[in-house]
TrEMBL record:
This is MFS transporter. Keywords: Cell inner membrane, Cell membrane, Membrane, Transmembrane, Transmembrane helix, Transport. The keyword Transmembrane helix applies. One of its GO terms (molecular function) is lactose binding. Pfam families: MFS_1_like. The chain crosses the membrane at residues 12-32, 44-63, 70-89, 95-114, 135-152, 158-178, 199-218, 238-259, 266-286, 292-314, 326-349, 355-375. It comes from the Bacteria. It is a multi-pass membrane protein. PANTHER family: 3-PHENYLPROPIONIC ACID TRANSPORTER-RELATED, BLL5896 PROTEIN. The lineage of its organism: Bacteria, Bacillati, Bacillota, Bacilli, Bacillales. It is found in: Cell inner membrane.
Amino acid sequence: MLRKNPLLSLKMFLFFGAAISSLVVSFLPLYFQNNGLSKSAIGMFFALGTLVGLIAQPVWGYMSDRFKTVKKIIIVVLIGIFIGIFWIFQLNSLGWLFAAGSLFFFFFTALNPLSDNLAKRIADEQKVSFGSIRSWSSFGFAIISLASGFYFNKMGVGALAIPMMIVAGMTLMLSFTLKDANSGAKKVNLKEIGNFFKDRTLLTFFLLSFFIFLTHRVNDSFISLYLFEIGGNEMLVGWLWFIGVLSEAILFITSFIWFRSESPIKYMIIAGFLFTIRWTMIGFISDPSVLLSIQVLHGICFAIMYMGAIEYLYKALPVEMQATGHMVFMGIAFSITNIIGSSVGGFIFDTFSGSTLYFILAVCSFIGTIGFILFSMKEKTQKNIEMVEG
């Protein structure tokens, strides 16, 4: 049934792929804490994962473009994830745990970018909205997070291994039903990719994206702590994430109504202004219930920004370099921003306050937004010149 319906197969795959992420992000730190690891050791484990991902993502993207397949690379990645999960839950030694974590993150950090790359290509081939497919990742993350909260409240977080193995196994089985995407006829090499990414316009796009996505990643790291600072509790943290990711899913699934691919930078400018407004509002908040209501903007800001960024990137890149380009973008927008944001954001939070941190985020996103306005004006001028010369 799934093989005959490639879109359904892809949606189910995205749902369970995001479910792995949900368990890793939401409950693996709690599992380690339950097993006696210090907060610093847990932090080092996930920081190591970010560094490994920064190296691994471009490698897997290049492999996908080089061998003209996304599906087969996803299958290899999922086998690695399955082995990594199994190894992590067998260990007590911190050194071996870090080794197992390095193996796990080498594969795990490639899963979501490769999945999004496949979803984008299939959406373009089938002439359907990318967001309507991508929404299944958000639904998977939100639903599994909420369901897992009830499950672990009853069973204890020490029972994490079996659900993670089951979800990873189901995702692996679903990967075999996927339809591969067109990767272009031309094979790429490292020299061509290196020359392409010297393009000043693309580098400017990456830099401006960095400014705004940095604020998104800092918020991911510190929103829960800020909620506690203004009087929240663990239950409200669960609802905070559920509201944010659910709003994201709704925006993605309705993108065929509001998103038009002709002017992707316009959406990034809109998202940048919304981010600026959101961070400013959060900086003034002292009531946890108000923060929960503003969390609806999480999905609105991210979905608009991500849709615009991916659409622009895929217009700028030749088809044979799209997987590599997507992975480089994810490394900049999510990995590098996470490393810088977590360290600098933590210093600002500890030294000053959560409010100060969010006011700085507002300034940072405003700078990125103004940059995109100038970037858009320059692109329009260049197009007009090309039309006159043509």
